[in-house]
Specification:
about 375 residues, binds 6-O-phosphono-alpha-D-glucopyranose, globular, 5-stranded parallel sheet, alpha/beta
């Protein structure tokens, strides 16, 4: 066979464990380790002149795009308009002449993403695509392709494509920051070094699979699960909830931690696990205080953080998953690993069809 499970029970497990290698491959398409600089493909956007970037995608690729918005803003000072493709394609987007539009897609065949791309082109935008399948429709119709070297992804629930999309998008945002003069050469070098560490950190995070499996057996008993995070980890909370519902059929919602008090806190009781994605970044204390509000209402908090982050959170956690310390803005690349493993093992505990979940397709080529 062209692809096999390589000793794993499911393609999804194989693809989760391939991440250190394929993230490194993807990074090698963009960064030069010797000079510690980024290089973008020929004909990429003229970031210095761009006044706005429109980003669009569906599903997991959309969450990768949402994370990139934080990167483009922080590193490049570039305003980003982002929406899911099925909305963007029908909106009256006030595109400006000479603008840029970036589409993110594993398959390159998602009908809504392709239609949003065509609409943006018709409205005079230059089109770029972060895409995994180079011979796909989206790759063919884009002016420039930003490659992601995830290799074939078979499991319907996207895993390695997500982290490779993140790796590619981070590189593009750093290059944009250099072009726009927001990052100097030293800042670029520091980010290149931080990115080059991510494959090793993902491998370390994956080594915790055994403990995550034990926690997942308890999550499998839940009817509803909440995921919360702030900043770059807010879209990762959305992705965590998506992954869990896709393959375990447990109802899950992702929320910005600061928004809990505006609704979802009403759902909290002793049966609702709340998964808190909180690396020790500038927002750590805010997120931990939201977690304490959940705990004060009898909620079961599962904290995902590094060793110090777990120690500082104090007593009363239901469970914790220790994750390696990583550059704060790159946390989603590494924290994706426990998020994916949690969904995977919850689904295997329930005995669902992990690689072929009911009602879902790998690539949605109809509207
Ligand atoms: C389907 C898949 C998802 C994927 C989404 C977008 O819903 O099940 O895993 O994220 O399509 O697919 P794309 O190929 O455009 O990234």
């Amino acid at each position: 066979a062209l692809v096999d499970k390589d000793g794993h029970r499911h393609f999804m497990a194989k693809e989760i464990h391939e991440q250190p290698e394929v993230i490194a491959h993807t990074l090698s398409r963009y960064l030069d380790p010797a000079s510690e600089t980024m290089r973008l493909p020929e004909g990429a956007f003229d970031f210095a002149r761009l006044d706005r970037l429109t980003v669009s995608a569906c599903g997991t690729a959309y969450y990768a795009g949402l994370i990139s918005k934080y990167w483009f803003e922080t590193w490049a000072g570039l305003p980003v308009e982002i929406d899911i493709a099925s909305e963007l394609r029908y909106r009256d987007v006030p595109y400006t002449e000479g603008g840029g539009a970036l589409f993110v897609s594993q398959s390159g065949e998602t009908a809504d993403t392709l239609a949003a791309l065509r609409e943006a082109r018709a409205r005079g935008q230059k089109i770029a695509a972060v895409v995994n399948v180079p011979e796909s429709s989206i790759a063919r119709e884009a002016d420039v392709i930003f490659p992601m070297a995830a290799g074939p992804e078979i499991g319907v629930a996207s895993t390695k494509a997500f982290t490779c999309q993140l790796a590619a998008l981070a590189c593009i945002a750093v290059a944009a920051g250099r072009a726009r003069g927001r990052l100097d050469a030293e800042a670029e070098r520091a980010l290149v070094r931080a990115l080059l560490e991510t494959p090793r950190l993902v491998a370390e995070a994956l080594a915790g699979a055994g403990e995550i499996e034990a926690i997942a057996r308890e999550i499998a008993e839940a009817r509803d699960v909440l995921y919360v995070g702030r900043g770059v980890n807010f879209p990762l909370a959305l992705e965590g909830a998506l992954k869990l519902k896709e393959i375990s059929y447990i109802h899950a919602e992702g929320y910005a931690a600061g928004e809990l008090k505006h609704g979802p806190i009403a759902l909290i009781d002793k049966d609702v696990p709340v998964i808190v994605v909180a690396p020790r970044d500038a927002l750590y204390e805010k997120t931990i205080s939201n977690m304490h509000e959940v705990m004060a209402r009898g909620g079961k908090a599962l904290l995902i953080s590094d060793r110090e982050g777990i120690a500082e959170a104090g007593d009363g956690l239901w469970r914790a998953i220790e994750t390696p310390t990583v550059h704060p803005l790159l946390a989603p690349v590494v924290y994706a690993a426990p998020i994916q493993l949690l969904a995977y093992y919850t689904a295997t505990a329930k005995g669902t069809d992990v690689d072929q979940p009911r009602n879902l397709a790998k690539s949605v080529t109809v509207e």
